[in-house]
Amino acid sequence: MPDDAILVTEKLTKEFHGFVAVSGVDLKVRRGTIHALIGPNGAGKTTVFNLLTRFLPCTKGRILFNGQDITGERPAQIARRGVVRSFQVSAVFPRMTVLENVRVALQRKLGTSFHFWKSEKSLAQLDPRALELLDEVDLRAHANTIAVELPYGRKRSLEVATTLALEPELLLLDEPTQGMGHEDVGRVTALIEKVAEKRTVLMVEHNLSVVAHLSDVITVLARGTVLAEGPYQEVSKNPAVLEAYIGAAE
């Protein structure tokens, strides 16, 4: 495993009853970078994320994180190693406040994640760190807002805060700007850039302007295989990539 790589996949493959969704994907994510995984609909991007986090078992291949083979580990073990993901669908507790959402994520450290009968006062020690995380995603002013009342873009920022509460070394973001208006896209793009200063980010993203702005390296998938890889300026001019996207549009 290369010294600068935090995550490596070797011939990663996933078959569903004879259908090959991901085929022989070799991926190397360098430490301290933002690495984008892009491709037309049905390319296998989210399936790769599900394989990396063991929401799906792979059919063939290996996954290495910090040089350790994590291919057969459970999702919770992988998360404890520092591989933490977000999802395409907003995943917050809608009837809890913004602060309470982050505090729930922080409870893991106290070993009280399932101690629902404990007094709320016992969780007060988590508030300073929760507020620090809200500062990091520009949500402190909304700490006492009920999550369901947040605009969609702010909910995505809250998801990032709860993800950061788990202290990820590698942050997997699945379509972080999906369904957003221009203003929210700009806010979330700036947020990803900020949180990536201390972490490695692997993201699936459909907005190519976001990809162009943020990414150090781009891997293009098509029909479950790697079509191209490199910086945006190089990949965006690749004839095979252009054909895949134009064909998908048609």
Structure description:
This protein has 250 residues and is α/β, with parallel strands linked by helices. The chain folds into two domains: 1-82 and 168-250, Rossmann fold; 92-167, no CATH class. It contains nine helices and ten strands. The chain has helices at 45-52, 75-81, 98-110, 127-136, 152-164, 182-195, 208-214, 232-235, 239-249; strands at residues 5-16, 19-30, 34-38, 60-65, 68-69, 83-85, 170-174, 200-204, 217-222, 225-230. The strands form two sheets. It has a six-stranded mixed beta sheet, sandwiched between helices. A four-stranded antiparallel beta sheet has the order 2-1-4-5, with helices on one face. A hairpin with a 2-residue loop joins strand 4 and strand 5. Helix 3 (98-110) packs across helix 4 and helix 5 (152-164) runs parallel beside helix 6 (182-195). It is globular. It starts with a strand and ends with a helix. The model has no long low-confidence stretch (mean pLDDT 89).
